[in-house]
């Protein structure tokens, strides 16, 4: 049985186990970008915005060999490399590095932590969000932090890329929430972005807005949430509610074949056929994994991350309009057994791109993990990614 | 926009709108079956078990023209007919009645409320469960009610059929949880059951056990739940938690095309791009629908209903073994866009039946509603159902 690990850790470990490259792993340095005052799409100003980032490879003189990787809902900038020689590899390390699909001998690869990143307790994540100190009050923002849209993620990243001297992105890519950021990038900066590779993502329609609400609902139910006012001494964070929220994400992001290991299994001492409070094996695993993940994340940030996703392409009246003027070259990567971004939805998204005259290819990512295949199963797509970059 | 209606009401109304039969609606009488003392599969005894039921048509002298219809998770015995001349029609009224697919001019059709039925506040639902009075204490059982397995549903129904003089079932059928009961019936009484029609259902594997746990989790998070001890004066039921639970079921049981009516819509006065507490249109609809459903159901019963589902075929080591000795003739009806019982799972179930040498046909039920297609979209399958009954 799989041990107690959070989503982030699981993804890293699985990537290492499934796709360990022969080449030596690269050690990357986590840096902080001080974005200063930032005006959100919603009209608010955050005075001291900062996010973490990391890079690999070298920017060329023209500034046009850059690749931006955007992270998934629960991830951070560590898409590639290790933060120390013995640390875990980044979630897409199998396709990013010297000689790999996104070859850092030729490309300058950048990845940043988003605003309202959920991994607040993680020393290697640097973000600005509801757990940050509001300079006007000296106390954590909590739910008074401004609403952040997906487009705001893009705008802060744009400032970062400008500060690094990037003039053009050869590629913007990412899985899930990272794919949504990539699509938002393609709409916002069509001339700046040469190629787009959204993986396990498609439009956030009302169906997905509803599911995102279901993900977050347990946080608001937890009496410890206190309308977001749980920071500070003597207060308990809404750990149970946050764990239930992660439980939904954890199962939703996987698939039936993964769950087979738990079929007809009971945890030691548990007898759910006789005691209503007892657990089945999959329940116990989800309880443990979700609680571990709750301990390394922040509940309010989860709520803001949900909202940012719900506000995908919110500057546009609809998806077709957003894609009309967007970047031209696309490699769209669905996981056919994805239970979050259903294959039907990805197909509709590809239709919209084609009707908008884009140059679109589709490559499926396989595996037994459903949605998570797009995080841990990308190595077999190496030639497709090289092909995209060669166009 | 769809108004405020619970699942049960929605299903009834949709059935009426989509498939109103030309024939006059039949008025049926709701009756009570006193099953007396009942021993559960878990080894407990319930002294005074009772369930509601209804019938249409006449049992023949041989007692072998009976059909049993089993209800879905949130349903009750009203699969067919109206309880009063102007009342709503049963959820499968389009296929059950005089001259319909399951023709009550020829068949004696029975449908019963399950044990631990969730519709406790509904005067037309009669059930025994955690909200019932424990005769040993004179107080509601709450979470001291014995665990009920899917097989217990079958055993109480068997007592009811015996009391009615039924010697053989020409067909046992039902949607979702009703399909699971049908499969359990086929395994438990292979000689008593001639034909089986499970609709939008398949095995409850660990994947589904996990999802069922996610459905119920908000109830346990609600501080008003109090470990199930919320009955009686001065206590509030866990309405918020129960509503969140129904919200998950409500969205899970639908599909993307249904949600399109909410795309890019905002409820009046709501501005979720600027206010973190504000709602999108689909969230508002789900909030309202789920709260209405919570007011007409019981939280503890929801927990027990989940457990009964998780204990599907729990008397057998695995599905293949359970199906080896099961009834022979099957019509399996998946909804291809079902997001609860995924099409892949139904296909695996059909494979198991075929390997066990059963005579199996498959008929898909279409529509825009995903899982709910199997409740409201059955009329087009009329000839397939007639064909099954003619075999």
List the helices and strands and how they pair.
Two copies of one chain form a homodimer.
Chain A: H1 7-19, E1 31-39, E2 45-56, E3 66-69, E4 96-97, E5 102-103, E6 108-112, E7 133-134, E8 139-140, H2 150-164, E9 169-175, H3 177-188, E10 195-199, H4 206-221, H5 239-252, H6 256-259, H7 281-295, H8 299-310, H9 319-324, E11 329-332, H10 343-355, E12 359-362, H11 373-376, H12 382-390
Parallel strand pairs in A: 3-6, 3-9, 4-5, 9-10, 10-11, 11-12
Antiparallel strand pairs in A: 1-2, 2-6, 7-8
Q: Measure the end-to-end span of chain A.
A: 44 Å
Largest interface: A-B, 59 and 59 residues
Helix content of chain A: 25-40%
Instruction: Please write the string of helix (H) and strand (E) elements of chain A.
Output: HEEEEEEEEHEHEHHHHHHEHEHH
Number of helices of chain A: 12
GO cellular component, one term (chains A, B): cytoplasm
Signal peptide (chains A, B): 1-24
Subunit structure (chains A, B): Homodimer.
EC number (chains A, B): 2.3.1.-
Description:
2 copies of one chain form a homodimer. Chain A is an alpha/beta fold and 391 residues long. Chain A contains 12 helices and 12 strands. In chain A, the strands form 3 sheets. The first copy, chain A, has an 8-stranded mixed sheet with strand order 1-2-6-3-9-10-11-12, with helices on both faces. A two-stranded parallel sheet of chain A has the order 4-5. In chain A, strands 7-8 form a two-stranded antiparallel ribbon. In chain A, strand 9 (169-175), helix 3 and strand 10 (195-199) form a beta-alpha-beta unit. The N and C termini of chain A lie far apart (44 Å). At the A-B interface, helix 4, helix 5, helix 7 and helix 8 of A face helix 4, helix 5, helix 7 and helix 8 of B.
């Amino acid at each position: 049985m799989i041990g107690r690990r959070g989503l982030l850790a699981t993804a890293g470990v699985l990537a290492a186990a499934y796709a360990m490259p022969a080449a030596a792993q690269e050690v990357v340095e986590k840096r902080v970008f001080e974005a200063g005052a930032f005006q959100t799409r919603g009209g608010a100003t955050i005075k001291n915005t900062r996010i973490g980032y990391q890079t690999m490879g070298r920017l060329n003189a023209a500034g046009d060999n850059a690749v931006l990787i955007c992270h998934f809902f629960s991830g951070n900038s560590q898409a590639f490399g290790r933060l120390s020689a013995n640390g875990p590899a980044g979630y897409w390390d199998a396709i990013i590095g010297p000689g790999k699909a996104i070859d850092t001998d030729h490309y300058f690869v950048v990845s940043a932590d988003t605003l309202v990143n959920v991994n607040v307790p993680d020393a290697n994540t640097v973000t600005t969000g509801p757990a940050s100190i509001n300079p006007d009050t000296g106390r954590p923002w909590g739910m008074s932090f401004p609403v952040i849209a997906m487009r705001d993620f893009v705008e802060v990243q744009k400032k970062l890329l400008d500060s690094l001297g990037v003039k053009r992105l050869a590629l913007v890519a990412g899985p899930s929430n990272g794919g949504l950021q990539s699509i938002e990038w393609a709409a916002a900066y069509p001339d700046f972005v040469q190629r787009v590779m959204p993986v396990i993502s498609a439009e956030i329609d009302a169906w997905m807005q509803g599911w995102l609400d279901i993900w977050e609902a347990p946080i608001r139910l937890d009496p410890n949430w206190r309308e977001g006012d749980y920071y500070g001494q003597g207060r308990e964070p809404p750990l149970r509610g946050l764990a239930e929220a992660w439980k939904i994400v954890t199962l939703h992001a996987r698939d039936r074949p993964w769950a087979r290991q738990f079929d007809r299994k009971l945890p030691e001492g548990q007898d759910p056929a006789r005691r209503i409070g007892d657990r089945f094996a999959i329940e116990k695993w989800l309880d443990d994994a979700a609680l571990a993940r709750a301990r390394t994340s922040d509940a309010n940030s989860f709520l803001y991350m949900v909202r940012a996703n719900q506000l995908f392409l919110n500057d546009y009246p609809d998806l077709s309009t957003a894609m009309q003027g967007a970047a031209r070259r696309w490699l769209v990567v669905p996981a056919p057994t994805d239970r979050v971004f259903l294959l039907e939805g990805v197909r509709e998204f590809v239709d919209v791109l084609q009707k908008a005259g884009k140059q679109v290819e589709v490559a499926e990512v396989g595996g037994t993990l459903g949605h998570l295949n797009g995080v841990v199963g990308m190595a077999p797509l190496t030639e497709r990614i090289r092909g995209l970059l060669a166009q």
